[in-house]
Design a protein that fits this description.
The chain is mainly α. 47% of the residues lie in helices and 2% in strands. Strands 1-2 form a two-stranded antiparallel ribbon. It starts with a helix and ends with a helix.
Length: 252
């Protein structure tokens, strides 16, 4: 396919998958349960960072986590007592267990005591790489941060493609009239977003000639996004829907 044909192909598949029907079977369904900004931010952060493995399992574990927080994550984070934290003991999804969860809750409580929105945590830096590196530093800035928990929040400083964090930012930053992404954060430019590069997106992107780097790292995510900006400079990450859908639904 030439440039024009590839753009038309991607636009068609973006249109096919960026629809409300996408929500039900995707982890983004978790924050869609809520309407308050902070509830969306918190539930979305957990849903995105726990998003590895089979989607039904991810969604089930996130529902379990929300139930443990009384289905009111912001209220739980900001008002919990020590006894309330006992509800979180025993939670585990793959390698994310209650030790990690308790630090997340501790950090979020500290953070929301000083900020109204998690968006503030992603604003430090001139590039997306700098912002994600600075968020990672901020997230683990408290003195009791467990070493084992660091692997659950990726950073470009370690070469990671940061798939789950980039997906979270897509959810909160992208704005359109489709009803899937939230577009609640307005100070981060959509044009700066980096495409989440999961295994499905990677395979389709390689087949379409949008990704050549052998290792799926931060440079690969930037390479893919640079190609996508050629089709939609102000909203390159909208094509995440097309690439993911082509991989998962159409097995391209």
């Amino acid at each position: 396919m030439n440039h024009a044909q590839l753009r038309e192909f991607l636009d068609d598949h973006h249109d096919r998958y960026n629809r409300p029907a996408f929500i039900t079977n995707d982890p983004i369904s978790i924050p869609h349960r809520f309407s308050q900004l902070q509830d969306v931010e918190i539930s979305g952060l957990f849903a995105a960072l726990l998003a590895w493995g089979r989607r039904p399992t991810i969604i089930s574990k996130c529902h379990e986590l929300m139930r443990r927080m009384d289905d009111a994550p912001y209220q739980f984070i900001t008002q919990h007592s020590d006894d309330d934290l006992k509800k979180l003991l025993g939670f585990c999804h793959r390698t994310f267990c209650d030790t990690d969860l308790l630090y997340f809750v501790h950090w979020l409580r500290w953070y929301y005591a000083n900020h109204d929105t998690l968006e503030d945590a992603f604003l430090q830096g001139n590039t997306q790489r700098q912002r994600l590196e600075n968020f990672h530093t901020l997230f683990f800035s408290l003195p009791d941060a467990p070493q084992r928990t660091r692997k659950h929040v990726a950073t470009p400083a370690r070469g990671s493609a940061c798939k789950r964090v980039n997906m979270y930012l897509r959810w909160l930053v992208r704005r359109d009239d489709r009803g899937v992404d939230f577009g609640l954060w307005t100070r981060l430019p959509m044009a700066d977003l980096v495409c989440p590069c999961d295994v499905h997106v990677e395979r389709v992107a390689r087949r379409l000639g949008l990704l050549t780097r052998r290792i799926v790292d931060w440079s690969a995510a930037e390479e893919l996004t640079t190609h996508l900006r050629n089709f939609a400079p102000q909203d390159p990450v909208k094509y995440d829907f097309a690439l993911f859908g082509l991989g998962v639904e159409e097995k391209l």
